Amino acid sequence: ETGVTQTPRHLVMGMTNKKSLKCEQHLGHNAMYWYKQSAKKPLELMFVYNFKEQTENNSVPSRFSPECPNSSHLFLHLHTLQPEDSALYLCASSLRQGREQYFGPGTRLTVT
Amino acid sequence: GENVEQHPSTLSVQEGDSAVIKCTYSDSASNYFPWYKQELGKRPQLIIDIRSNVGEKKDQRIAVTLNKTAKHFSLHITETQPEDSAVYFCASGGGADGLTFGKGTHLIIQP
User: Fold this and answer.
1) Cβ contacts (< 8 Å) between A90 and chain B: which residues?
2) Which of chain B's termini has less CB crowding within 10 Å, N or C?
3) Per-residue pLDDT tens for B78-100?
């Protein structure tokens, strides 16, 4: 499946590092999303972008910083993370908000 | 905000039997209810969805029912097969928001 791609697929970082996750969609969609999936919690919506504008921030700590330069690309910049931030980070896109979402394969993040 | 409850957390059924997973939601403005299947190590995949203007939708062995008055919706899988084993998530959403997901149901198909 190549509709929504994410890089890297795996990332290990220390608490003082700065890294970025990348998401790209080739579906012509206008809305993109970041979700966090950890073992003990359901899929948690983090950020929503609609036509490159951030429309939702679900009380996410400032150590997570999203960026959406265009409707096809979405980034999640990470800095001074905590071990409890270790999780699978999933990107998704939809034609517009409220429509069916398609997920990328995720980035497995481990914070040491 | 929206709250989605999903039950059961684990469901084990014999191959060939039916499986039912139930979800409730809290926001009466929600109008879109998708179901996702996530196999181990893979991304969630949309398998069926329903909008608030219909009460039932079917796609081969999978069906979803919606009761807007009671704010609950269910996934029905008939004639279960080994490849149906996965984690299933329900979700609820409105026009301007992302989706709120349930905690997931681990469906195990016993041969």
Assistant:
1) 43-44
2) C
3) 999 999 999 999 999 875 567 88
